[in-house]
Design goal:
This protein has about 260 residues and is an alpha/beta fold. Helices cover about 30% and strands about 25% of the residues. Helix 5 (about 150-165) runs parallel beside helix 6 (about 180-195). The longest helix has 16 residues, at about 180-195. Bound molecules: adenosine-5'-diphosphate (ADP) and magnesium ion (MG).
Length: about 260
Amino acid sequence: MSDTKTPPVIVLKQLKKRFGIGDAEHYALDGINLTIQKGEFIAIMGPSGCGKTTLLNVLGLLDSHIEGEYELDGKSIAYLSAKRQARIRSQQIGFVFQSFNLVSRLNVIDNVALPLIYKGMTKLARQKKASTMLRSFHLGEREFYMPNQLSGGQMQRVAIARALVNDPAIILADEPTGNLDSRASHIIMQELSDLHKQGNTIIMVTHNPDLTTYASRVITMLDGQIDTDTFRLPLQSRTSTKKPLNIVKKPKASTTKKKDKK
Ligand SMILES: Nc1ncnc2c1ncn2[C@@H]1O[C@H](COP(=O)(O)OP(=O)(O)O)[C@@H](O)[C@H]1O
Ligand SMILES: [Mg+2]
């Protein structure tokens, strides 16, 4: 169980992010201290406006004007040049957004291959890698579809494949199921859960308390600060069933066990 010998993948010390000036000055992040070990699956919750997206953007180096310390993979990166940050972002960080953010004029395989352009690989090598990734998400037969020919759930699986194609150190997901129905949500969560089991580090913002059952740690935020921080065994590890749709429902205080209805 002890992971204490491997260095943490993320260390934040007194991290602050300020928006506005003068009277409008406001700390969206107000002194975050957080250590994340490799292989954690973290769910972040909290009321709208508490700083969840800002935190993910800072972690993903999309928002660089911060105060405090940010170490990724043992290196202090908060104050590097924009160019070096962009390189780290493209090589170490995979993003999954609520709105999928696929490039509509590119087909599925080109979307997934996109992050590899920065690696200087040949087009053939990029497409091979993207194709392997898509097959692992059971999207092999959709390679040449355009995004608008896919369902929301399929688009998000393509987006996850794209986020992973670079073998990132961390996967950041901001409400990845926010635009999906419950069934598609649980399929996406199952994918994230499988990635977690393979040793990936995942940090996911969600509004849906049901979805935190997939996580190994649940952090709640309030007013730009961490309010609670709870480690736990993900529900997925506690059960051997292969039907994700039936195991994510927590019995509500009562002792009766309800089955999902179709
Ligand atoms: N670009 C911005 N400019 C000014 N204020 C912002 C900006 N982005 C976020 N904020 C403010 O920072 C706070 C946290 O926002 P956000 O991180 O989006 O919250 P959440 O994702 O938890 O809903 C809010 O008060 C929001 O208005
Ligand atoms: Mg948000």
